[in-house]
Amino acid sequence: MAIDMRPILVGETKKIALDYDFSLTDSEFPFDTAIDGVVFEKPAHIDGEIVNMGGYIRLRAVVSVDYDAECARCLKPLKRSFKVEFERTVVNQGELVNTAEDDGDDYIEMVDGKLALDEAAAEQLMMEFPMKELCSEDCKGLCSKCGKDLNEGECGCPKKEIDPRLAILQKLLEK
Ligand SMILES: [Zn+2]
Ligand SMILES: [Zn+2]
């Protein structure tokens, strides 16, 4: 959804409230929203506001999404949610003046009075999205020999601690 900024630009209002869902998947974002092992079954959500601060316009929002993932060690399905805070100063396209203090990350551009908020919010979400999921910090994972979930108990495979470098050699010898 593109936010129509006119009411705030012409002084009709000082604040535009944001509270809506947007899809991370059926979109034409110029970046990838696919993450291995992660399924976005439900849309993401934006909650926040765009405020005329007197002299400049500030966007403040929280972007959140529920998703399905799997534990990186034991592959157990997980239901997770993730949210990021998203704050920007809204400027007109081309208006960005780079000064030494600005890293440019703090701005979002509107084009013809419209703000492509979904795209910017999705990008922020993807940038900070967790790289891997664990069902718990001390997940024991699966046995590399028999595949049993070691969180449910020992499997009985001989578990000699093998130096990982030796293990690679051993695999080669088995071939
Ligand atoms: Zn696990
Ligand atoms: Zn085993």
What does this 3D model show about the protein?
- The chain is an alpha+beta fold and 175 residues long.
- Helix content is 15%, strand content 33%.
- It has 3 helices and 7 strands.
- It has a 5-stranded mixed sheet.
- β3 and β4 (57-70) form a beta hairpin.
- The radius of gyration is 23 Å and the shape is elongated.
- The relative contact order is 0.17.
- The mean pLDDT is 89.
- Bound molecules: zinc ion (ZN) (2 copies).
- One zinc ion binds at residues 71, 73-74, 76, 134-135, 139.
Mean pLDDT: 89
Shape: elongated
Fraction of helical residues = 10-25%
Beta strand %: 25-35%
Number of β-strand runs: 7
Low-confidence blocks of residues: none
Instruction: Give the H and E element order.
Output: EHEEEEEEHH
Question: If strands are numbered along the chain, what order do they take across the biggest sheet?
Answer: 2-3-4-5-6
What topology emerges from the helices and strands here?
Elements: E1 2-4, H1 6-9, E2 15-22, E3 44-52, E4 57-70, E5 77-92, E6 107-110, E7 114-116, H2 117-128, H3 164-174
Parallel strand pairs: 5-6
Antiparallel strand pairs: 1-7, 2-3, 3-4, 4-5
Bound molecules: zinc ion (ZN) (2 copies).
In short:
This protein has three helices and seven strands. It has helices spanning 6-9, 117-128, 164-174, and strands spanning 2-4, 15-22, 44-52, 57-70, 77-92, 107-110, 114-116.
List keywords for this structure.
175 residues, alpha+beta, 5-stranded mixed sheet, 3 helices, 7 strands, elongated, binds zinc ion
